[in-house]
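Possible race condition, two jobs.
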Amino acid sequence: MTERHKGIALVTGASRGIGRAVCVRLARDGFEIVAVARSQEDLDALRAEIESGGGACRTIALDLTDGSAIATQLAGLGVSVLVNNAGIGIIKPMMEMSPDEWKTMMDVNVNALYHVTHAVLGGMLSAGSGHVCTIGSISGRSAFVGGAAYCGTKAFVTAWAESLLLEVRDRGVKVSVVAPGGVATEFGGNMPTAADDWKLHAADVAEAVAHVVGTPPGVLVHRLEVRTLYSPPSRGK
């Protein structure tokens, strides 16, 4: 590790949207990035961007629904910062959601938190330092029609992260949740349009993550909610 590197930051869902922005932002702060996503092609493009700016990036193409693969490929990395970003949003009424859709949501948004964090947390505890930062959502406390599964998974994030904090804080490991409001990304399979101009950008959320993981050793921002200043067009002026 060069003097420039602060440590290794592992980011899931790194190939696009918030995850990609977080990788670029933390690389600029001097972290060596380990970028995890399903698409190797997208990961290669991210690595090229980071390296062109003088940063360091490794990539791991990984299916986060495969707990065994996660344990094998993430073991022994010596991670300083984990950003649990990967997530999917299947938004539809409960009775229209298939069992497979429900299971996929739980596997990616909930079960992957266990598998990924479990794979790297032991190293943090042994080192007596580290930071687990998970991307939540204001939807975790603000329900909406069609959000039974998605809102439920984000409510889980809040309770899980606070419980984990109480387990590991006295061993030097920080645990945080960054909960954004609406973000103009491809999340949910929808490309951003002009109608999304009022929303946050992925880079805004990345700045929040950089702030949270950049606090001094004795300072913890456990929960940070990030909102756009503007109202949705249908709700305000």
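Job #2 (started ~2 s after job #1):
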Amino acid sequence: MMKKIVKVLNTALTVVMIAVLLFAGYVFVTVLRVDKGKVPSVFGFSFLQIATGSMEPTIPTGALIMVRQTDAAEIREGDVICFYSTDPMIAGMPNTHRVTQITTENGTIRFITKGDAADEEDPYPVYPDQLVGVFVRILPIQNLAQILHSPYFFFFALLVPLTAVIFVEVIHFKKSAEEKKEKANEKSE
């Protein structure tokens, strides 16, 4: 009975580890394929770290946020959006501000935005082709961006699970070899 439980657990652990490795590989390839300066998206979600206090107190400086890809037509006044800025100070970089107005210019939607901590609206409108997505939530993980950029992340995310799978397989192989040896001894007696 115990051998059966160990075998089931071994199989389950192997399946989980393979799934984790496949998912990590998918994320890794997805991030590598993104154009330089663009925000990677995994299954329609992006993760960004807030660099300034422009959205405080709603979103504090340093917070890690989740952003969902959204069609421009679904965005409403009051939504917090992430977009590639055209402000010369941060041109091309992702920016996260609240939509204060939605207007149409020559049939094209444009968003007027403002940081919650700012007194005035942003001077540059946001167009649908600049949109990264709509803010979903602050992630409760402190300093995740630092962790993801650390070389230790890949060690723990890839090497440790792989080592665990190999270890479990070696134990399984060893037990199988012992069982075969015992059966061979029983037959020869």
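The beta strands are 45-49, 64-68, 80-84, 94-105, 108-114, 131-139.
Logs attached separately.
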